[in-house]
Amino acid sequence: MLEIKNLHVKLEDEDKVILKGMNLTVETGKVHAIMGPNGSGKSTMSYVLSGRDGYEVTDGSAKLGDTELLDLEPEERAAAGLFLAFQYPVEIPGVGNMTFLRTALNAQRKARGEEELSAGEFLKLVRAKAKTLKIDADMLKRPVNVGFSGGEKKRNEILQMAMLEPKMCILDETDSGLDVDAMRLVADGVNALRSPDRSFLVITHYQRLLDHIKPDVVHIMADGRILQTGGPELALEVEKNGYAEILAAHGLTEAK
Amino acid sequence: MAASEALSARLAAQPAGPGFDAGRQAAADRLAAMGLPGRRDEYWRWTDPTPFNAETATPAAPGEAEAPLFAEVDSLKVVFVDGVFDAEASDDLAMGGVEISRLAASEPAWATGLYGALEAAGQNPVKRPFAALNTAQASDGLLIRVTAQAEKAINLVYVHKSEVSDPVLHHLIKMEEGAELTILETGPAGARFNKAMEVDVAKGARFHHIRVQGAEQDRRAVTHIFARVAAEALFKSFTLTVNGQLTRNEAYIDMVGDDAVAHIAGAALGDGKDGKFHHDDTVFVTHGALRGESRQVFKKVLKNGALGTFQGKIWVKPGAQKTDGYQISQSLLLDEDSQFLAKPELEIYADDVKCSHGSTTGAIDDTALFYLRSRGVPEEEAKGLLVLSFLADAIDEIEDEALKEEIVARLEDWLARHRS
Ligand SMILES: Nc1ncnc2c1ncn2[C@@H]1O[C@H](COP(=O)(O)OP(=O)(O)OP(=O)(O)O)[C@@H](O)[C@H]1O
Ligand SMILES: [Mg+2]
């Protein structure tokens, strides 16, 4: 599904190199988790995959199925089936959450040559999905993420994901800022979307989320690349011992 | 040419309409005393008055006819073609709760002393020569007296056909106690349009005004609103301007009764690619009574060298305690060639008031743009959404949902046609 090869990325305006030869393959239908110290480049990787400005890819590739993502505009990547749940969801004053969702959904459908949803069909769909995520009518009416609590913003990301039904979902610290119940809601939302045709890449710092969303594969990322890959037990090991050993094995210190 | 000769020449080129001799003469005297504005006039420092001072209008090609707005709204339609009343295209000037006649055809007793009175009151502390000129010279307009809830809206349609038309229209509206009326205005009106609207809102009356200045490139317009708002009365005005090489919209709102409410808002969109765009909002709100609430909300979206200006003032007189005055002027510059100039002012002579004003200039928020695109919304469409979101506060000043939708549709249409 997703295949990142030897990805090198630097900041456009600075000489700072962030991704230093990243390799990662997520198979169709699988859930992969990425853990790693702060600043290791996890969010940068998700932004580069979704096409945010400000980064320069100096080497490597990132493919979604047969499509080279790095050649596409952000909206084309979305239409191709990529979705990023943001670590920091963006507030858009003046644009209603409903309008936003409907515009996005219909834009993607149009790009894929599918028929746009009517107002009625859309409303029915969004209400049903919002209900399972305990997002009330008021949150749907309000401007996108404006005045939402941290947890509400994260649930709103999952609502978008549920509406857009992407093939490849990247979740960047969707668990941060969630209370125990909200975490369960989000995890249930994700699990409901799990399917043999859909893959997930879950970025997290905590095992807690992985108790709910059971990953098939766990990667440890540091200093702009994947250092180690293993099964679910790798996350438990990190939870217990931290990153020191893994980093040291690769000649990195924790301070990095 | 001496200033007085220039003025005489200006007036001679455009003879005054009939009736209202006293009101016209007083205005002519006011105008003679103040003279036409010059470039060094403080109130005209960002907008060149020369095209309005000129004896005749600079020719302006009429734009393509626009799809009519407010067609679905139940309204009494009144059409002026290049400032000339079009009886054929207009509805009968009659409806429940309202007396309507034409300035050029009648002089009802209620109007005689009121004509020009609010304009005269609005000449302090700053001079508005083109308003005095309008009162003195206006060829036509409507005289509207509203005694109850008007049966429907009055829909003024201004058609521009002649390249050299130079209409001067003056509307006088008297809202009696508890009356309610909505006035709609659309269209470019002429090559050079001078319009004044005096609105006297009596106790508890409610007046709504929604205006769309024609999306025509070459037209020029100088317009004035003078409103006097009595106790517990409501005055609300919204203007949408798209295109037009020169527009100066002045408003003078005098809140004379306790618990009065006055909101005035504007959304202007200009694309210099179509030709010059210069839009000037000049607003003056006076609080002279207790617990008045005023809001000024002005937003401008500018690209390709378009220029927007805003001069706005909240003036709180001594004794106007518990005034709640708010003013915001903002621009969204879609490129680096465009410019927004603003002079927000507060002048407060009462100690127990709540007044705030702010002015900002900004660009499209890149983070928001990326967020939208990452959800599959194409770049131009995403920008359009962000522009609409920028304008939302101004558009929200339109109370009627159906009218609001028409305005939004018109905006969307403009945005679709002006993608970079
Ligand atoms: N636009 C930028 N300007 C300057 N530095 C940046 C920028 N973007 C990323 N960085 C730097 O790149 C490194 C990687 O950042 P990134 O946000 O990708 O880390 P992360 O792994 O997501 O961290 P966290 O776990 O804290 O979310 C950090 O050192 C960060 O400061
Ligand atoms: Mg991060």
What do you see in this structure?
The complex is a heterodimer of chains A (256) and B (420). Chain A has helices spanning 42-50, 74-79, 97-111, 119-132, 137-141, 150-164, 180-193, 207-212, 232-241, 244-249; strands at residues 2-11, 17-26, 31-35, 55-64, 67-68, 82-85, 92-96, 143-144, 168-172, 199-203, 217-222, 225-230. Chain A is of the alpha/beta class and 256 residues long. Chain A has a domain at 2-95 and 166-249: Rossmann fold (3-Layer(aba) Sandwich), CATH 3.40.50.300. Chain A has a 6-stranded mixed β-sheet with strand order 6-9-10-3-11-12, sandwiched between helices. In chain A, helix 6 runs parallel beside helix 7 (180-193). Chain B has helices at residues 3-12, 21-34, 50-53, 109-112, 117-121, 129-137, 366-374, 379-395, 401-417; strands at 75-81, 84-85, 94-95, 98-102, 142-146, 153-159, 168-175, 180-187, 192-201, 206-213, 220-229, 234-242, 246-255, 261-271, 278-287, 293-303, 307-316, 324-333, 339-348, 354-362. Chain B is α/β, with parallel strands linked by helices and 420 residues long. The A-B interface holds A 50-53, 73-75, 77-79, 83-84, 86, 89-95, 99-100, 103-105, 107-108, 111, 143, 160, 164 and B 366-368, 370-379, 381-382, 385-386, 388-393. The structure holds adenosine-5'-triphosphate (ATP) and magnesium ion. Adenosine-5'-triphosphate binds at residues 11, 16, 18, 36, 38-44, 54, 87 of chain A. Chain A: GO terms for molecular function: ATP binding; ATP hydrolysis activity. Chain A: Residues 2-248 form the ABC transporter domain. Chain A: It comes from Rhodobacter aestuarii. Chain A: Keywords: ATP-binding, Nucleotide-binding.
